[in-house]
Amino acid sequence: MRIGDILAEPIRHHRLAEGEVATGARVNELLDLVGLPVSATTRFPHEFSGGQRQRVAIARALAVQPDFIVADEPISSLDVNIQAQIINLLVDLQQRLGLTYLFIAHDLAVVRHVSDRIVVLYLGKIAEVASSSALFRRPLHPYTRSLISSVPAVVGGAARSGERIRLRGEPPSVVDPPSGCRFRTRCPIAQPICAAQVPLLTEHAQGQWAACHFAGQL
C-alpha cells in the first residue's frame, strides 16, 4: 500500500471524515504533523528510511484521534541521531495534542526524558513505581539501582554516584521463576526471607512504591 492509503485506511474504517476530499485533507494534515511532505502519499514504505517509516507509523496512530498511545520500543531499531528526532517528535506531539503515552523501553536515558512516572519491571513483576525525578534521585529497589548505575553519570545525577552495580548470574526463567522475590537470585542484598516470601508492593515514600523486603538499603 502507498503511504496515502495506509493513513487513509483507519480514517475511512472509523468514518472520521466525510468523503474522499476530507479524508485526503486529513492525510495531508497527519503528514505535516510528523514532518513528512505531502508528496509522501504516492510512495511506498520501502522508499523511506527507518526514521521516516516510524514517522508514518506515528501518523497512522494519530489518524484515529487518540488520547492514549502505547509506544512499545518505538526507537529500538533506529540509530542514535534518528532516535533523538523521533523522541523529540513524540514529546512535541504530546504537548500539542494533549496525548498520554505508555512508553515501553529499555533505554533509561530515553525513559527519563519522556516520562512523568516510571514503572520498573523484572520478570514480569513490578519492582518499583515512582515519579521520574524521585526514581533517579533515590531508587529504592536494588534492581532499579543497578539499572541506573549503568547509565552515564550525566544522566543519573546523584543516584549515579559511586561505582556501577554489576548483577551476578544470569536472569532466571520466566516460565519457572524463583520462589519469593524474583530478583533474589541476582540481588546483592538478598536474605532468607527473600526466598520465603513474595515482597508486597509498598509505598515507602510519597508516591514511590517498591516491592522489596529491604527497600532503600543498598
Could you spell the SSE succession in H and E letters? HHHEHEHEEHHHHEE
Percent range for β-strand residues: 5-15%
Instruction: Give the oligomeric state.
Output: single chain
Strand order of the largest sheet: 3-4-6-5
**Residue windows where pLDDT falls under 50 for at least 5 positions:** 154-159
Q: Roughly what percent helix?
A: 25-40%
Q: Largest beta sheet, briefly?
A: 4 strands, antiparallel
The coarse silhouette is elongated
Distance between the termini: 54 Å
Total number of β-strand segments? 6
What is the residue-averaged pLDDT?
92
Q: What would you report as the Rg, rounded to the nearest angstrom? A: 21 Å
Number of helices: 9
Assign the structural class, choosing from mainly alpha, mainly beta, alpha/beta, alpha+beta, or little secondary structure: alpha+beta
Report what the structure shows.
The protein is an alpha+beta fold and 218 residues long. The protein has a domain at 116-218. It is 40% helix and 15% strand. It has helices at residues 3-13, 19-33, 50-62, 80-97, 108-114, 132-137, 142-149, 153-156, 192-196; strands at 68-72, 100-104, 117-122, 125-131, 201-205, 208-211. The strands form two sheets. Strands 3-4-6-5 form a four-stranded antiparallel beta sheet. Strands 1-2 form a two-stranded parallel sheet. The longest helix is centred in the middle third of the chain and has 18 residues, at 80-97. It is elongated and about 70 Å long.
